[in-house]
Amino acid sequence: MTRGPTLPAHRLPYLPTPLGAFNGAPADEARALLLHCLHSLRWAHRLAEHRPYPDLGALLAAADEAAYDLSPADLSEALAGESLPELPEDAYSAAHMALSAANAAYEARFGHAFVIFLGDVHPDEALDRILEAIRSRLANDPEEERVMAAEELRRLARGRLEELLKAAGSCATGHNAPAAGK
Fold first, then answer.
1. Burial state string for 152-178 with b = 16 or more CB within 10 A and e = fewer than 16
2. pLDDT tens digits for range 49-79
């Protein structure tokens, strides 16, 4: 039986991916994208300089490592770029007041916005989780809280990076995307 011609695996047509686009983007564009994930110039430069990443897992591991290596000044820079997590639109006004008061106390004690990763929390539980965490973390000493804030920033950066690449992937695979090979 005769088989038709086949292409070896290394000759298959290249299909652009969000990670491929990130890897191939000019350094300034890559850093700008990364700064949307974490407001640290050092972190963004480090990740952009170490491209290309073979897969999303490698990029996320590098993002984690770079976040763990933030100096106190880098951490302060990243925290200065953060704002309080947003409440759901249908949250009652008392919730906004409670969150504003808790955040004011937090900022007075620690000198920066409260940060928390909510990617694994159901939206209906977000308000309770934020208020519970901010009240609990107000009891931390400043150094302990700095460690907690750094961990939350790392988790936020990782989640934002995943979301950006997923969003770019869904745009590229949408019905208006060009067909492969065109």
1. bbbbbbbbbbbebbeebbeebeeeeee
2. 999 999 999 999 999 999 999 999 999 999 9
- Preceding amide of 54 cis, omega within 30: no
| Spatial distance between the Cα atoms of 99 and 16, rounded to a whole number of angstroms | 43
Locate the domains of the chain by residue range. 17-172
Put simply, whether the predicted model's pTM sits higher than 0.90 gets the answer no
Q: What is the tens place of the pLDDT at every residue in 17-30?
A: 899 999 999 999 99
CA 78, 28, 25: angle at the middle one, nearest 5?
Answer: 115
- DSSP code at position 100: H
CATH number assigned to the domain covering 17-172: 1.10.3330.10
Residue 128 C-alpha from the chain's centroid = 22
